[in-house]
Amino acid sequence: MKVEPVNSDDNPKKVANSLGWTIPSVMKLLKEGNLYFKTIQEKTGHTIFRINLGVEAFALCDSQSATAVFDYSKVTKDDGFGRLKFNKNLTGQIRPSIFCNGEVHERYRKFLMDVFRATSVDYLIKVTNEAVEKHFSLWEKSYTGAGIAKEWEMDILRLCSDIVHRAILGGEISSEASHNWLMGILKKKRSALGVKTKFFSKAIVGYAILTNGIKESPHYQSMIKLADKRSVSEEEALNNILFSILFNYYGGCSAAFRTCAARISILDENIKSELIEDIKSAIDKYGGLTGQALCQMRKLHSFVLENLRMSSPVNLIFGRAVEDLMIKSNTGTYKIPKGKLMVANLFWAHRDTRVFDDPLTFQALRFFNNPDLKNYLYWEAGPFSKDQCEKTHQCPGRNIAIPSIMLFSAYLLLQGDYQLGSEPQWTGKKIRRLGTPDEIITLKKFKYKSDVTVSLPEAVLNSKLKYDEMTAENNNSQCPVDSEA
Ligand code: HEM
């Protein structure tokens, strides 16, 4: 959706000011999360209003207005997300693609898109299958049901980390270092007393381990050749790869994995059987689990999209207006002055009653029954149905993200028999939980149904990362899942 430039004939509504004092506003945000945005909406009667998130921003809280931050000809990116700035010490002083603008952004983005295209869905299936076998066996030994429920999240993160590293680098790097780096990337180096924080101290050690791990990975030299073709230096390439693998891929998918695991545990038995049938019949049709089989799993695809609608790992997308803008919303048209920060709230855009029926209810087959709704799914910072291009910040990893989440969910549905410690709840209050349930997910018992075999055809078992076959001009290997589903 295009944002209208300001026209003197337009008669915009006054933007309600709900800024308040910074500390109480931030406290409310931390306590109420997305519900804080709803409270202001109800109080003011507008879906666009000014809010204090530690920085002042214009909040856009419905499906129509949220699209304003995706018009990348009219917004620019800052060095972080609102008041959370990224720590440059943990990216070799390089600003990663997500925070860049203009020519630099375009160079980095083209390079990253080249890198991600080397990962075929078949190869993703192969590495996921290996990781699942290893981790499900470990989980069965750890969660016997004998004692009290134990935290499950770190185990899911480790599984995700194994998949992510192998899917892009072709080898594993330390999941502990990844976790420590991630814990520090949006935090300051020093506390108010001038002392280095414990997060930073661990993260900087993690940074050294990770950059060495990437440099020693089997495909590093091929990646650097791709970078050279896009005029990206080795230092820029290394730090962009690091940031995209860990912050974007691992950060996003590990949250979606946890959410899907929790959803599956409380899924209606009939729907669960339908999903299992959907998976099995596609596998049978293609003589094993392949990329083509995965595209046939339309119901599983819908289940994953419904998770991304209700529990998007990223709730807030920021953008700064490069000119005065007129933005349309459910409650009228508003003027956002040049230079002002905007924040689209995806939690509410994905719950817009003008678009989604009964938006507060999880409906696993919502997108299967109504595929057009994909036009209003913005989890990747842009309409899901829109093709990727080099001039946007829309997630360039979606052709890896969706198959990754589908595969993890398929294996859990087929081979996991498990019981959580308590029923998961999603109130929307805890933005920092990245769409996962409010409380840490605990597990009582995990049974690995290894007798339910998932066969992988030779072509999948022999698949490899394709860096050496790629050139910057000729690399159009497309993930089939979204184009066909
Ligand atoms: C469920 C998983 C994922 C979610 C929810 C997600 C979400 C997003 C969002 C919202 C943005 C834009 C952020 C902004 O503009 O503020 C983004 C950008 C990005 N994502 Fe993803 N992503 C996911 C998976 C992935 C994967 C698997 C990869 C890589 C293989 C990836 C790589 C990137 C990169 C490199 C950017 C920056 C793009 C640019 O600025 O041009 N993401 N992602």
TrEMBL record:
<dbReference type="GO" id="GO:0034653">
    <property type="term" value="P:retinoic acid catabolic process"/>
</dbReference>
<feature type="binding site" description="axial binding residue">
    <location>
        <position position="395"/>
    </location>
    <ligand>
        <name>heme</name>
    </ligand>
</feature>
<dbReference type="Pfam" id="PF00067">
    <property type="entry name" value="p450"/>
</dbReference>
<dbReference type="GO" id="GO:0004497">
    <property type="term" value="F:monooxygenase activity"/>
</dbReference>
<dbReference type="GO" id="GO:0000249">
    <property type="term" value="F:C-22 sterol desaturase (NADPH) activity"/>
</dbReference>
<keyword id="KW-0479">Metal-binding</keyword>
<dbReference type="InterPro" id="IPR002403">
    <property type="entry name" value="Cyt_P450_E_grp-IV"/>
</dbReference>
<keyword id="KW-0408">Iron</keyword>
<dbReference type="GO" id="GO:0005506">
    <property type="term" value="F:iron ion binding"/>
</dbReference>
<dbReference type="GO" id="GO:0016491">
    <property type="term" value="F:oxidoreductase activity"/>
</dbReference>
<dbReference type="InterPro" id="IPR001128">
    <property type="entry name" value="Cyt_P450"/>
</dbReference>
<comment type="similarity">
    <text>Belongs to the cytochrome P450 family.</text>
</comment>
<keyword id="KW-0349">Heme</keyword>
<dbReference type="GO" id="GO:0020037">
    <property type="term" value="F:heme binding"/>
</dbReference>
<protein>
    <recommendedName>
        <fullName>sterol 22-desaturase</fullName>
        <ecNumber>1.14.19.41</ecNumber>
    </recommendedName>
</protein>
<keyword id="KW-0560">Oxidoreductase</keyword>
<dbReference type="InterPro" id="IPR036396">
    <property type="entry name" value="Cyt_P450_sf"/>
</dbReference>
